[in-house]
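A common beginner's mistake is to predict each chain separately and then try to dock the pieces by hand. The better habit, illustrated here, is to supply every component at once so that their relative placement is modeled jointly.
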Amino acid sequence: MVNSLIVVPLISSLVTAAVISGIWVGAYYIGVKPNQKSDSSNSDPTNQGSASTASYPVSASTASHPVLTTPCIQRSPCEYRLVESIPWGIFTNGEKVMNSTSSAWLDLVNGAESSIEIASFYWSLLAEDTGDNFTSNDTSTFEGRDFYNALINAGKKGISIKIAQNTAVGGYPETANLEKNGWAQVRSLNFTNFEGSGILHTKTMVVDRKHFYVGSANYDWRSLTQVKELGAAVFNCPCLADDVGKILDVYWQMGVPNAQIPDKWPDSVATVYGSQNPLSVRLNQENDVVYFSASPPDFRAGARTGDIDAILNVINTATQFVHIEVMDYAPTTLYMQRNYYWPLIDDALRNAAFQRQIHVRLLMGRWVHTYTEFYSYLYSLQNLNVSLPCLPRGSKDCKRGTIEVRLFEVPPYKEIPNIPYARVNHAKFMVTDNTAYIGTSNWSGDYFISTGGIGMIIQAGDSSQTSQVVQELNDVFIRDWNSNYSTPITDYDLKGNPINSNNL
Ligand SMILES: *[C@@H]1O[C@H](CO)[C@@H](O)[C@H](O)[C@H]1NC(C)=O
Ligand SMILES: *[C@@H]1O[C@H](CO)[C@@H](O)[C@H](O)[C@H]1NC(C)=O
Ligand SMILES: *[C@@H]1O[C@H](CO)[C@@H](O)[C@H](O)[C@H]1NC(C)=O
Ligand SMILES: *[C@@H]1O[C@H](CO)[C@@H](O)[C@H](O)[C@H]1NC(C)=O
Ligand SMILES: *[C@@H]1O[C@H](CO)[C@@H](O)[C@H](O)[C@H]1NC(C)=O
Ligand SMILES: *[C@@H]1O[C@H](CO)[C@@H](O)[C@H](O)[C@H]1NC(C)=O
Ligand SMILES: *[C@@H]1O[C@H](CO)[C@@H](O)[C@H](O)[C@H]1NC(C)=O
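With all components supplied together, the output reads:
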């Protein structure tokens, strides 16, 4: 890998970084007022001052960390694939679907030459580990098994496999088996010890520090065939892979017994890339700028942008539309000892539609486990649509924003009607007229305050150009939004019960 990285002295590197990101940073400030004061993802529930102000902070966290590492020059184009898992039985009428998560994962693992590094929540690639006494020989269980076997084969070949996972009483049989046989090293992270709550929720794989996956899919057979997932797989891209690798290094370090958040992360895991200084790379045919965001705030090293700051940045820099597809959405925390109101994203969306005439569309997943209170949150958001102003006032050319909310519901799978915790839209992404954001977190406060997550943010390097990567993600959104699995929020009452329109 060293061959492909050009190491340059610090001073010239700063100049290079400024030049290569110049166009982008210039465009970035249009319509955005950077706010120096805040770390918006303040994890102290008693200190909500900055969280409830009407401004939308851009990450200022980089200020206290000098840029110490050198930028990476990615000379050859990276192969970028938008990948998704489509629950079996839907989108069978010729709709365009992207390459599958499982084919990308197999390509990653089968192509590994020296190392595979994984960050994961839980493990159930085999049907027998599904839980709830579930067993099945259905062919939809095979892709998970095949991926697990590919990992075993890589381990047997002597490829170094490191797995960071969320802690669980008794562990997970699959990673325990990999470890017992010497095929993988496994570390478990207990976020209660670091953050008082939270989990490791990231789903990422880095191979040879050259190739990687970032997205919503868990290491679970259902995430390959029975749950709707979205992610990015990138090949031959050491600069980006190494930057994701630094996030994995942080997890690895936090996985040793009695680990504590250090006062300062070592430079070796600190990134130079963030919202203010993204990395220039060629993804397939186009020049893009890319950075990775991370949560919780304690797990960021160097210039790493917080995941919530990245999301707010993307919303605040949209000029036409904001399209969001997320499994769960709540302007609150959900898992704190004392939950509190957390309106950062909600405010940014309302502000975008009201103040900047942006067209906001939010498509949330709906399944049997959807919390009842989410419906009123969604209604509240969409209700503003009625009273969005047309600006400038009185002008016949005035422009009005919109806010529209729909729910995406995956119908049951005929062969196995009762797969536990499946048949849901688990994708977590956002696309605007100029930016793609691919994430791993649900959109409630907890995920940005105390839970491990990661986001990948992609824009055209020249902000006057339309990015194919952004366009392709928007095609996915529009497909889902217009599909017959998607229904307006008003098809449900405030408690989430379906309203039979014939009875109205
Ligand atoms: C799937 O990946 C292959 C290989 O990278 C690529 O040629 C093809 O265009 C991709 N298909 C879609 C629908 O993105
Ligand atoms: C699983 O099976 C065991 C033994 O039959 C039973 O006691 C238990 O309640 C079952 N669990 C679930 C979640 O169905
Ligand atoms: C799966 O197949 C095996 C072998 O044919 C059989 O013993 C087992 O009962 C099957 N399990 C299910 C859940 O169908
Ligand atoms: C995680 O840490 C907390 C606090 O120390 C402890 O109560 C809990 O049992 C731990 N969880 C696991 C799965 O070890
Ligand atoms: C939102 O408001 C616009 C008018 O600005 C209207 O055309 C549209 O139907 C509304 N959408 C919903 C979902 O109410
Ligand atoms: C968020 O996503 C995870 C899976 O990644 C899911 O299990 C969980 O129930 C989701 N919802 C909430 C409200 O946390
Ligand atoms: C969507 O439409 C297709 C046919 O166009 C139909 O087979 C399918 O059942 C529909 N799904 C839903 C959820 O209505």
